[in-house]
């Protein structure tokens, strides 16, 4: 079937646009009229535009960002709380969106609702937009009659999760920039600067210090075998990425990054906060513990932690307590384990898991504020060592040559 791009207006005069797959323009017009949309313009999408769409899908340009989902959840909370029919509300949201792909998804979800599907079943057809945790929460909201509250909780969860990610990325931006600058300086010096000094030193035929000979040898490698070095570096990066995407590599990296110097404990606590908050969210919505743990494992975005959480789930299914299974996982601090124990005894696991999440989030916030202070001395030491090596390797021979020339 061909793709068609359409523009139209709803019964309330709202402007609507989007894309649709159909056999003909008449079929598109009939479907739009069935939705309550008066078609104004319908054009068949050219093969070039369709190819461009596929390229955008491949490179992720059409990806629905977390901020889009946050706004969607907030708007859906308002719509469901006001009692507006889901189909009308979703179509109204789609009409107001500028994200073309998300607009199409919402229109297709509305189509499935009109065909008799539930909202969770309709969303399950778009796993790249609505993940398993999102869909499961919507299903719980539908069955409990608290869909508005579920949308509010999901929006809050995605927002807190995204804020933590952004803070970690912001804290790592400065050291990443410094390391990239040092790497670029090493390449430029070895290809353009050191060879000129090597020519100067060779004219005098004097014996050069060991450090200078090492620098000149490294520079020769870059100049004469630079293409092999580039290919080797590309192969190393590609091989590393391929290995990390494999199951054993993903497990190894998931475990190692939580033990990295300086930032490892930060990543670990941010992951624990995400786990505790998602677990609390699922329990608060009425999801059974076993199913909630399975969904949390899928949402944690760390294969090693996912394996640990699945172990907790298996322990619960065997009849073990939450405290015992979390103790066996060897991931949580004694304070957190004590809070889980109290929550299990008092029947307030959900609220105490929220406290656990906030406890970890406060620690992450504090560590992020002091992270730059911890990294700066290390970066200064690396930069000072780099400058010292270059200075000694280049200027010591020049001083020696000056002494030879002046007879001192």
Overview of this protein structure:
By secondary structure, the chain is mainly alpha-helical. Helix content is 77%, strand content 6%. It contains 16 helices and three strands. It has helices at 25-34, 47-59, 66-81, 86-96, 100-114, 119-123, 132-144, 147-204, 210-245, 247-256, 264-284, 289-299, 303-318, 322-329, 334-346, 349-406; strands at 2-10, 15-22, 37-44. Strand 1 (2-10) and strand 2 (15-22) form a beta hairpin.
Q: How would you summarize the topology of this molecule?
A:
Layout: E1 2-10, E2 15-22, H1 25-34, E3 37-44, H2 47-59, H3 66-81, H4 86-96, H5 100-114, H6 119-123, H7 132-144, H8 147-204, H9 210-245, H10 247-256, H11 264-284, H12 289-299, H13 303-318, H14 322-329, H15 334-346, H16 349-406
Helix pairs in contact: 3-4, 3-8, 4-5, 7-8, 8-9, 8-11, 8-16, 9-10, 9-16, 11-12, 11-16, 12-13, 13-14, 14-15, 15-16
Question: How would you sum up the global shape?
Answer: flat
Q: H/E series, N to C? A: EEHEHHHHHHHHHHHHHHH
Termini separation comes to: 88 Å
* Main sheet specs: 3 strands, antiparallel
Mean pLDDT across the residues is 82
Oligomer: single chain
As a percent range, the share of strand residues is: 5-15%
In percent, how helical is the residue content?
A: over 70%
Summary?
The termini are far apart. It is built from 16 helices and three strands. Helix 8 (147-204) runs parallel beside helix 16.
Question: Which features does this protein show?
Answer:
mainly alpha, 77% helix, 408 residues, single chain
